[in-house]
Amino acid sequence: MKTIVVLGVGLAGTPLIRQIMRNIVLKSKDYKMIVVAPTTHFHWPLAMPRVVVPGQMPDDKVMYPLEPTFKEYSADKFEFILGSASGLDPEGNLVTIALSDGTSRTVPYNTLFIATGSSAKDEMPWKLVGTADHTVDQLHQLQKKIESAKTIVVAGGGLTGTETAGEIGYEYGKNGKKDVYFIYNSDLPLSSAVMSSVRKQTETELERMKVKLIPNTTITKVAIQGRDTVLELRNRDGTTKTLTTQAYLPTTGVTPNTSFVPKHMLDSKGYINQTSSLRADGHKDIFVVGDAGNLENNRAITAFSQAEHLIKVLPSYFAGGELMEYKINTKPMYGITLGQSKGTGQMGTFKLFSFLIWFVKGRFMGTDKAPSIANGKMTMSATFEK
């Protein structure tokens, strides 16, 4: 019997697991699947900017147990291993797993799917932080800091930072309950890939919520002094100053979860070299999907579109046919929530109305679809079998 191994149960992993099980494994006596992950729960990152605000959303809106879905499959066709990949031998088709009980196990594979995603820096719960329990603990600690803080600082001008500044500004800034600062290293929030009109509207909406914007600035030092965190700030012109906060929320990038992969398979930033067929470069039996690969930028929409592509073409692959190449979507798409009632975004070169962003994303932050994504029945843009 041939073994399909899937590493990861995130945005890309869960749709792949269910659809490969139903369309390949359960329809053939020749295959079984082994899923490896350090967590018993699916984590929904899109809602985290709102969930960190105390009292806005309960934990179960971002953490969904995997067991109800996995128990559908018989033991002779499916196995879940609670642990993390610690080594990969692509020549021997072996993955070494560090198990949750401290032991290790070597798992052979015929086809490997690496969907291990990425981790936020400073153990922030924007992404899964190891186990489900540890992630929830980190979330609760952050909520307590925000609740008791007089001054809150969000750092990092990407999508997560911008939306988090908006949520905290909506809750605390506009009514003067707390001082909310937003620090980023460019002239405007969001990356230069976003239209300037969208970035400027974002700036305007944050200012309306009385978020104190600190552009063109980086944080060069973080020092803990009792309950306070003292930040050393450096402006683009070289001037420095300090800012004291009781709740510091860095959103300054992610690290790919690829430490188990041989270095010759990685680029200089630690991402797996990924081909247009979504394989690891030079390895026809290893697929890479989502944040672990370097074909596209780390975004939820990328993880979904890559998973959707593989779900379509894998039946041909397992039947011995040719694999159609994945086409990168070059049309920029962004939906930015700014508090609970505003938003902005773009589709290609068209700026989207605030109401549309609120209706599609801002009302629920995707939590209306997250349960079905967690059990692999859909992504944000595609629905599979029920």
TrEMBL record:
GO molecular function: electron-transferring-flavoprotein dehydrogenase activity; flavin adenine dinucleotide binding; nitrite reductase [NAD(P)H] activity
Record Gene3D superfamilies: 3.50.50.100
Class of this enzyme: oxidoreductase
GO cellular component, one term: cytoplasm
Gene giving rise to this polypeptide: AIFM1
Membership in a protein family: Belongs to the FAD-dependent oxidoreductase family.
Highest taxon above the source species: Eukaryota
EC number(s) given by UniProt: 1.7.1.4
PANTHER family in alphabetical order: APOPTOSIS-INDUCING FACTOR 1 (PTHR43735), FERROPTOSIS SUPPRESSOR PROTEIN 1 (PTHR43735:SF3)
SUPFAM superfamilies: FAD/NAD(P)-binding domain (SSF51905)
Keyword terms: FAD, Flavoprotein, Oxidoreductase
Domain called FAD/NAD(P)-binding: residue spans: 3-306
Protein name: Apoptosis-inducing factor 1, mitochondrial
